[in-house]
Write a structure and sequence with these properties.
Order of helices and strands: HHHHHHHHHHHHH
Largest sheet: none
Radius of gyration: 19 Å
Helix content: over 70%
Mean pLDDT: 87
Strand content: under 5%
Number of strands: 0
Shape: globular
Distance between the termini: 11 Å
Low-confidence stretches: 1-9
């Protein structure tokens, strides 16, 4: 027996508004990352302070909910693995790569997370093979090849090398998705997962950030404000996405990927004056087609 899908009426008004708000918020984090790296702080330091702010917000929400955070050995291992795959590694690499890539290109590459997730799930036999969804993976890989060609209009001749980092970031997020599906301990909700992994990531990043340079900025300017904005947008978008899943179902909520990618490209063009070649637009079309194919079909 399959679970009934939310009524169509629940997908009008508030649900659509939430879909676009979450997408615009998450898409805007790449723009703010580009601003944040202008602070002169290293990638570990930026990732650390983003984790500090995230921990404060998620812990406050956890305390407000009245639920404690499970701290058994199984839970601590789970938090540590998720902290590496979902925060410490991808955030650090994202701050390194955004120094060399445009906001639009980075947003486009990170949109391959659904394809990467399905690819890993198929390899681990967590998903059954479907030709339609496998074709979506192929389109995502084709998009990466298209954007890496020398004529793609990347910032510099060597910029294609930096595409490797957001690709690793996408793989890291995908690995986290699969790991959560396979290993999430009982008695742990989505908020607990985010709170626990955020604490784990913070503790991992602290030594690296301390070695990298001064942890505390001398001034609080545009770049530092952008870092705060990234953390707040991430937390708000996460809660909005969870609300959207409960309100309109996971298939409807998955469409947020289109908005995130499109808004990331649009933010970069509108506020940073980025312009992209026909190769980048072709890659964007391939990514959108890939997302459409790998997304699960709704059950009725």
């Amino acid at each position: 027996m399959t679970e009934a899908a939310p009524a169509p009426g629940l997908r009008s008004g508030p649900a659509w508004a939430a879909l676009f708000a979450v997408g615009l918020g998450w898409g805007g984090t790449q723009l703010l990352s580009k601003i944040a790296v202008g602070s002169g702080h290293g990638a570990f330091t930026l990732a650390f302070w983003q984790s500090v702010i995230g921990v404060a917000l998620f812990t406050a929400a956890q305390v407000t909910s009245g639920r404690g955070l499970p701290l058994s050995r199984q839970h601590l291992i789970f938090y540590a693995v998720c902290g590496v795959l979902g925060t410490a590694l991808p955030h650090t690499l994202s701050y390194i790569s955004i120094r060399h890539l445009s906001v639009g290109v980075q947003s486009l590459v990170l949109a391959t997370v659904p394809m990467m997730t399905l690819m890993l799930a198929l390899a681990l036999r967590e998903e059954r093979f479907e030709a339609r969804r496998a074709a979506g993976i192929g389109l995502g890989l084709a998009a990466m090849l298209v954007i890496a060609v020398p004529e793609a209009g990347l910032p510099a001749e060597t910029a294609a090398v930096w595409l490797i980092l957001p690709i690793i970031v996408s793989l890291s997020y995908a690995a986290e998705n699969v790991y959560i599906a396979r290993a999430k301990p009982g008695g742990l909700d989505a908020l607990g997962v985010m709170c626990g992994l955020s604490w784990a990531a913070l503790l991992m990043l602290l030594p690296a950030a301390a070695v990298e340079g001064p942890l505390l900025p001398n001034t609080f300017g545009e770049a530092e404000a952008a870092l705060v904005g990234i953390a707040v947008l991430h937390v708000l978008s996460y809660f909005g996405f969870v609300w959207l899943i409960g309100r309109a179902g996971p298939v409807f909520a998955a469409q947020v990927g289109y908005v995130v990618t499109a808004s990331g490209v649009a933010w970069g063009m509108a506020l940073l004056g980025e312009r992209h070649s026909v190769w980048v637009w072709a890659a964007l079309a391939l990514v959108f087609a890939g997302i459409a194919l790998v997304s699960p079909r709704e059950r009725t």
